[in-house]
């Protein structure tokens, strides 16, 4: 029987995808047992406001442009066709059914844990899936990091946020080195985040 391929899932709005996302994905490929990482572009986070969120297809396109040269990465639009708002437990169940030869692992930061118990069916998530977790400032000592389904990695902390990048573009700053070059070109050509 074929061994299941260990696949990390990095969920996000990727509004826009930036070098911090790529560093985390790369770190998990190099320093864990994951064989590939999928960037799952979320159409709507139930716990976040939708303001300043680019259209789904633009955010997916930016992820595709960012990862085009690395066969170990994949952009996933799986949540676009699932009921809204999208809940992680539903997405994982759907992926498991669609790709039975893969073992899916969640890649998250420690910053999810203070609100993790608000997630739909959070106990089931911990029961059936593994979480590979990277540290975020001020949250790495949370009790959830000691759960048997959670593996905490000593990944470098990268303090780049999409909010910072959007604000920089609004303020007409050169944000080239915070994003993959082709993503930045796409943003400039489309005049995204300028107001």
Please explain how this structure is put together.
This protein has 195 residues and is an alpha/beta fold. It has one domain (5-190): 3-Layer(aba) Sandwich (Rossmann fold), CATH 3.40.50. 32% of the residues lie in helices and 17% in strands. It is built from six helices and six strands, in the order βαβαβαβαββαα. It has helices spanning 19-31, 56-67, 88-98, 122-128, 162-170, 181-190; strands at residues 5-12, 36-41, 73-76, 102-109, 130-134, 150-152. The chain has a six-stranded parallel sheet, with helices on both faces. Strand 4, helix 4 (122-128) and strand 5 form a beta-alpha-beta unit. The longest helix has 13 residues, at 19-31. It is globular, with a radius of gyration of 17 Å. The chain starts with a strand and ends in a 5-residue tail after the last helix. The model has no long low-confidence stretch (mean pLDDT 92).
